[in-house]
User: What shape does this take?
Amino acid sequence: MLEPSNPSSFSRIRHFSLHIAPFHHVTLNNLSTPALLVEKSRLQSNLAAMQEKADANDVTLRPHVKTHKSAAIAKRQQQRGAEGLTVATVKEAETFVEAGFSDVRVAYPVTGRDKHERLQALRDEATISFTVDTAAGAEQASAVYAEAGAPVDVLMEVDVGHGRCGVHWSDDEAAVTLARHVASLPGLRLAGLLTHAGQAYHGPSGNETENEALRRVAQHERDRMLSVASVLSDADVPGATPDAFEISVGSTPTMAAFKNAERAGFRVTEIRPGNYVMHDAMQVALGAASLNDCALTVLTTVVSTQTKPDGTHRAFIDAGKKVFTTDTGSGTDGHGIALADAATMQPHPGLHLDGLSEEHGWLTISGDADLTVGDRLRIVPNHACVTVATHDRLSIVDGETVVDAWTVDASGW
Assistant: This one.
């Protein structure tokens, strides 16, 4: 039986990120499945590589913690040089402030008085900021923060091609109108611009290679944001000056090709990747990472093997939609990558995870592959962020040895 140890080594991280110790001779065989495994060496390499990318481009790394939702990993990001955290929900903001983090940005157009009041309640302990992309949303926020005294920082969200939230980058009039309106509202301070180039997940277009697609989207993300900042500056929008205006970009795929640049004195000031800590099959398919970069795998057990009337050989595992999710992306094949050798991250050519039901993964077996009930597999999920969100613990491993365990701290909205 593994007993929890004292997590006091993490300053201000109170009851979060439970450590399970002592880890004497604990191996993967001791774990109940399905279990999420994080290879310690790959995690450390990923943290170091992104911090180096940020430092080389003279930008702040404000990592998005929705991927791991773990105060233990966020602490390690901070120790390597990250400044502040990005979250997706008010609940995540509450969780990480309670864990002791003092600068949290909600990269989401927060809506509703209840949510703004919850954020306002955090401001005694942390610097809080969030995005707006409509006049109505800004006015709702103003109604809460105008009562608070000190204004709250907001960033205007810009759509640089993803087609989701944000003022479209090419609509100068809309951008200037909204920026001026936000800057005029009591309780708000227009601190900058923020975007997410989610179109990077669409993959190559036409005859592009994966690397060419990443470079294209990364350049669009950067240049379109600098263009909007320049437009706001030319229109004399309050605060839109190169010395003070934040320009925040970020997705793990675009960071693979990110290079900072300057336009009218403006530069990207902040990057917000999240998935990079783990990477996953989507990032591999996009060319943003190699399989050897993937720190997260799912440990799962074969619960049944069957040969169907059409001759198909199948194995069924104890990890289905609630673990792998049904997310697929450009270039992915099935719902994850089954490994023949997790030490070298070699995919298994004869195992294909091509179906999911809620608690079952459906593997097609071909070639020389042979599985029996009780066998265990490690599978790289398509989308690490959603896989982690369905669990409450990450087992930290060094090869076949479990060296630590950290809780997944944030859940809900």
